Task: structure prediction
Amino acid sequence: MTTPLQIPTPGDRIGGYRVARVEAIPELATTFIALDHEATGARHVHLARADSENCFSVAFKTVPADSTGVAHILEHTVLCGSRRYPVRDPFFSMLKRSLSTFMNAFTASDWTMYPFATQNRKDFYNLLDVYLDATFFPLLDPLSFKQEGHRLELEPAEDGKPRLVYKGVVFNEMKGAMSAPDQVMGRGLLNALYPDTTYAHNSGGEPAEIPRLTHADLVAFHRRHYHPSNAYFFTYGDLPLAEHLAFIEAKVLQGVARIDPGTEVPPQPRWTAPRQAVRHYPLAPGEDPGRKYQACLAWLTADIRDSFEVLTLAVLEEILLGNDAAPLRRALIDSGLGTALSDASGFDGENRDTMFACGLKDVAADAPPVVEQVVLETLGRLAAEGIDPALIESAVHQIEFHRKEVTNTPYPYGLKLLLQFAGSWIHGGDPIRVLRLDDDLNRLRGEIARGGFFESRLKTGFLDNPHRVRFVLAPDPDLARREAEREAAELQACLAELSAADLERIRQDAETLRRRQETEEDDTCLPTLALSEIPPTVTGYDPADGMTGIPALCY
Result:
C-alpha cells in the first residue's frame, strides 16, 4: 500500500539539512524537493511520488586529470569490501539476499553514480546501508587495487626464463575497448573537440597509461572526490524523505567538515576557426584497409545547463538523422561514400558543453573532405530552403513521447528521471528546468509557429559555428603489433630492474590473489530480509492484449 507523501516547505530544517526548494510537477505526478546539508554542502534531490518502487543514488563529480583510469578503477575497487561489510563483492552478494529491481554503478566522463531500486522498505535500507558504506568507507586495500586496476605477474617464456605481464580487470577491459573502432572514435572525438578540459583524457583509462596509476593515487582521488561536499544524493518514491535523510546523515555525514573538492569543470574555450584531427585504430591482420576509414564533422554546441537548447538539439538530431528518410542521413547514405553513419553520430548531451557529430563509416582514405562537403551543403540547403514542417512535428512528437513515457525499461522510472537531469545538475544546472519538459516544449512550439526556427539554428549552431572538427578514424594494420612491442619492451626494462625480493613479492601477490578468489567467503555480515519481511503475494496485472489487437498468450 502506498504511504501518504510527506511534503516539507522551503526553509524547513530536517536534521542537518535545509529545504531549499519544493515544487510540484503535475505532469510527472511528482513533488520535487531540493535540500542542502548545511555542514558538508552535500546536495540532495528527492522526488516524492506515489510509487512503491523506491530509488536511491549517490553520484560524485569525478574529474580525471590524466588517462590512468583512476575514476574507472575506483568504481571497481570501492565494490571490493568496506568498513562494515568487508566482503569481497558486497554488491554481488546482495543480489542473493535482496529483492532489488535494479543495482549497478555507472562511470561517465566526469561523474560516477551508484544507483539501486527496490519495492521493499526493509530492503531499501539494507541496500542503502551497503551502498553508503561501500562508497564513503571502502577498504581500498592494495590487493583489491591490483586485482581491479593493474598488477605485474610472472609467466614462463619459451626460453624458460620468467617474463612480466600486465593483468587487472580494468586494464584488460580497456585493452579490449580501445581496440574497437567505436570506442577509439568516441574517445578521440572528445580529445579533439575538448582539448583544454578533462574530456581530453580517457576517463576509462588508456592501456598504456593505466600502469602509471599508484595505489596512493587511488586513495587520494577517493579522499577528495568521494567526499560529502562533492556528493549528489537522490531519492525517489513513496517512502518518507525524513527517514532517508536521518539514515544518510547518521551513516556518513555526521561530524564531517565541508571541503572544497576542486571538481568544477570549466567550459571549453571556443575556437575561432575549424580544425582537423586524425586517430588510428588497429586493423585485423590481412584485412584490406582500403575502405575502413570513418569521417565525421563534430561541433561543440550548447551548455548542458540550458535545457531549452538541449531539447532543441535533441529534436534537430531526430530531424536530421532520426530515420532512413531524415535529410542528412539520406544525403550521406545516398552519396555512396560509405555504408552507414559513423560511430558517435548524433547529439551527445552528457558533457559540460554538448556536442553534435555526423559522418560516414567504411569510406576511402580520400573521402573525408567530400563527406564534409556533403554535410555542409545539406545543412546549407535545409537552412536556405526550409525543413519540411511534417518532419519537424514528427521529431518533436518522438522526443516528447520518449521523455514522457512512464516505463521501467531499461531502468526503473525513478532512475530514468534522475538520468534526464543528472548531467545538468552535477554541473550546476537546475533539475526542475529539465523535468518541466512542457515549459520548454511550449516555448519550442511557439518558436516553430513563428517560422524559420530550426533553419536559424542550423546557421548559428552549425554553419556559422567555428568550433568544428573534421575527424578521421584511420585503420592501421601495424598498430596492434607496435603496441604489443612497446608493452613488451616496457615490461622487459621493468624486469631488468627488479630484485629477487621484488620478484618473490610479485609471486606472493599472485598466489594470495588466487587463494582469495578461490576461497568461499562468509558474507553473513551483510544485511538480509527475514521471511516475515517479504510479502507473501505479488501484485497482479490484467492482460492488455485486447487493447493492442495483437493475439497473445497471457500467463
Q: What stands out?
A: The radius of gyration is 26 Å.
